Amino acid sequence: MDGPEFAVIPVEVKQKSKRRLVITWVSVILGILVLLGGAYSSLIYFVLLDYVTMPYITFSYRSDLADESQITVTIDRVYSDSDYPARFRVPRKLMGYPVTAIGPSAFAGLERLEEVIFPETIASIGESAFNNCVNLAKFNVPSALDYIGTDAFNNTAYIANYPDDAVIIGSILYTYKGIFEDDTAIVKSEDSPAIATHDNYFNLGIFEQIGAGVFANQPGITYAEFPDSLETISDKLLYNCINLSEVHLGDNVKYIGNEAFYGASSLVSMEWSNQIESIGDYAFKETNFAGAVVLGTDLKYIGVGAFQNSHAMTSITIPSGLSVLNNYVFDGCENLAEIILSADEYTPNSRIYDIGIAAFRGTAISEFTIPFSVRTIKDSTFEDTPNLTTVYAYNNTTGTTRTEYTLDEETGELVENQVSQGLQKITIKAFNNSVSFKELVLVDKDNAIESPLNRVTLPSTMQQLGEANTDSFIFSNTAVEVLDLTSAIRFIAPSLAKDASQLREVIIDGEAQSILIGAIYREAFMNCVALESFVVPDTVRVVNSSVFEGCIALESVTLPTNTSYIVLDTNLFRGCVSLTAIVIPNSIQAIKDRAFENCTSLTAITIPSSVVAMAANVFNGCDNSLQITVMTRNNNTANWNSQWLGTSGLTVEANVTYIPE
Q1: Maximum distance among all alpha carbons in the chain?
Q2: The pairing of beta strand 246-248 with beta strand 255-256
Q3: Which residue, 42, 76, 538, 631, has fewest beta-carbon neighbours within 10 Å?
Q4: In order of start, what are the domains of the chain with their CATH numbers?
Q5: Rounded CA separation 487/459 (Å)
Q6: What 3-state class would DSSP assign to 49?
Q7: CA-CA distance, 607 to 656, in Å (whole number)?
């Protein structure tokens, strides 16, 4: 019986089929890997590149921003002593954040550097970033680049190899290589009328952006105008252009950079656009704007020293938008006689809350009203102001506050705070050497005078005059005659009124206000040659050296009687030639060197038995008629210096009487 036929498959054939299957799958997997490798190799390559130069750099980023998409990285420094590559690739990202800026001086002085490859994310290259990279000859220009700082590529091979003319990096006019001919006008277009009136010209109109310091130190430039498309006058743009005499800003300029016109000593006038929002630090220092300057209504910021040493300016009008008058803003403006602020500054709606260090030093102003919201007169604010006689300050500001915003570091949100108003502090040299200054006059919220004229009266809000450990010279070499220190101050600062030659009276009225003064520090009233008397408050525990030294008209002093006052300090009354008598409190334990030296009118004095230490020359130079009564107890004089009477002729036998208690 015929059955079905079966095909016999050899074993070795099955093994070959399995091998083919394995090879097929391996091929598929390898193919997939090749495809994936092709797709991701470039990505892996670039990610790794971001870390190739990481060992050579320091960088920074803000970690306090809640929105991480806003966090960017700045390259701060490349280590000059490291083995950095001559062909340097700046990372595209670090810590997952885009690198957008090269910081000031970040690569400065890297002599082996030949080429830099920037990522397209770079938007800013800081001041002197590649300064003195003498072999740097090549770099790419990122598409995002919109700022290059002053001297960013100074002294590099790139600039050295560039022909004399405008140096253009991307769309930025980076600098001008070479020296302009005399009487060159910087113009905004080929149609400028200035071309016809000047011997030479340079056309700015073809450039989208103008870098920092492009025309610095160019004595040939005499005229400059800017296109209406320009919003920012860059830092040091016309720095030290000593013959620049005329400037026309474009209609849309909003920002004037730091030192933009610094040293343009021939600049006497300029059209001030209402569009200007910010004037940078030292922007117009050592210019010579003549007469009155009226700043635009949109102005929100004036930088440090913006008009410092602008000698010819006589008046300036400041709009209402400012909140700060910065340090040195009008310092050295010797003909500036009038500073006009908005009327709101003399009401509780005042916006200016800060007047900076030496803001009005050396000006010609004769009087000034401190804006309502200002709480501190800072260092040297009115120093060397020869015409200043009167400053007005607000008193009784209770019930008025100013809104202030601070950043909450945890949430990153602005927090609204209500800040009390009223003058609280005057710091060192505030009125120093203002030889005509004689009165700080208090006014109420309606600007009515509240305090006597011809004296300095501190407002009730005052908490501090000067610093405890620094020579203050606040009223030194002024015309102040009466100084009323009745306030909440806790000490009288060192050299507070030293050399105030017209000061004849100091008032500290304990009935008008509780006295908190605990110390009078060194030389506070030294050489106040018109001061006639002084009552030291009983709250005072320390009266330091030379406080009354050289007060030649001082006739009487009342010292505190509290038990904490234990030392008559060095030179305390030295040279007080009119002092006839003084009571030394029973609390005094030590009298130091020369405390009464040359007190030639002193006729009699009693030393209490509490004094256990007496230094040398305490009474040196006193008149030979002086009678000294020494109260003794428990051998308290045993350790006195043997020269305590000095060397001018006083003797124990003729001038001292010991009386035991």
Answers
A1: 167
A2: unpaired
A3: 42
A4: 54-158 (3.80.10.10), 162-340 (3.80.10.10), 363-398+422-529 (3.80.10), 532-661 (3.80.10.10)
A5: 7
A6: helix
A7: 10
647-655 long-range contacts (CB < 8 A, ≥24 apart) are 647/617, 647/620, 648/620, 648/621, 648/622, 649/624, 650/619, 650/620, 650/622, 650/624, 650/626, 654/624, 655/624, 655/626, 655/627, 655/628
Calpha distance 100→1 (Å, rounded): 92
Residue 471 CA from chain centroid, whole number: 19
Tokens of residue 550, six digits: 């050289």
**Separation CA 211–CA 334 (nearest Å):** 33
**pTM for this model (two decimals):** 0.83
Residues of the chain with pLDDT under 50: 1-18, 22-23, 26, 36, 39-46
Number of other residues whose CB lies within 10 A of the CB of residue 40? 11
Distance CA 512, CA 486 (A): 7
- List strand residue ranges (DSSP E) for 268-344, in order: 278-279, 291-294, 301-302, 313-317, 324-325, 338-340
Separation between Cα atoms, residue 112 and residue 139, nearest integer Å: 14
**What pLDDT sits at residue 213?**
92
Q: How far is CA 516 from CA 116, 149, 457, 509, in A?
A: 64, 53, 17, 11
> Coil, strand, or helix at residue 20?
helix
Beta strands in 328-438, from DSSP E residues, in sequence order: 338-340, 354-355, 367-369, 376-377, 390-394, 401-407, 414-420, 425-426
Dist CA 232 CA 212 (whole Å): 10
Give CA angle at 141 (138, 178), nearest 5°. Answer: 65
Tokens of 341: 């602020």
pLDDT tens figures, 505-527:
999 987 777 889 999 999 999 99
Residue 427 corresponds to which amino acid? Answer: T
d(CA 315, CA 382): 16
Work out whether strand 57-61 and strand 73-78 pair parallel, antiparallel, or are unpaired.
antiparallel
Taking residue 89's Cβ as centre, other Cβ atoms within 10 Å add up to 16
